[in-house]
Design brief:
The protein is mostly helical. It contains ten helices and no strands.
Length: 132
């Protein structure tokens, strides 16, 4: 089994792929890897990913032209938002709230469902976060 210490050196590469790669499939797969890493809370990757700056480039993917990329990005962000208030604040500061608004009225069931989960995680935060 792969250990967290073996994965951590690769995390900056994921952020770079989100920032600079233009290939839809690579973007989708990068977002999917982040979703997997953040779904497995036992790996403890949420803090590491936010510390290296995954928030803003991942939020930007919510406006991607590919539904598949948006689907994986919103799933990843929902996982990241299930952390503590400080972790949620990083994503609020990265502009997640206005980026989620258009997704609430999308036609894709999975995107809408994961968007609602993300909004729910934000509203479970502290008073200042809920008032955003």
């Amino acid at each position: 089994m792969v250990q967290p210490w073996q994965i951590k050196p690769l995390l900056p590469l994921l952020v770079e792929l989100l920032r600079y790669n233009k290939d839809d499939d690579v973007m989708k797969r990068s977002c999917r890897v982040i979703a997997g890493l953040t779904a497995a809370k036992s790996l403890g990757m949420t803090e590491d990913l936010l510390r290296i700056g995954v928030g803003a480039p991942l939020v930007e993917q919510l406006a991607h032209r590919s539904v598949a990329v948006v689907d994986q990005a919103v799933r990843s962000l929902g996982n990241l938002l299930s952390g503590d208030d400080a972790q949620t604040q990083v994503l609020i500061d990265a502009g997640i709230v206005p980026a989620l608004r258009p997704l609430l009225s999308c036609d894709n069931y999975h995107i809408c469902k994961d968007t609602l989960r993300a909004v729910g995680n934000i509203t479970a935060g502290n008073r200042e976060q809920v008032e955003v």
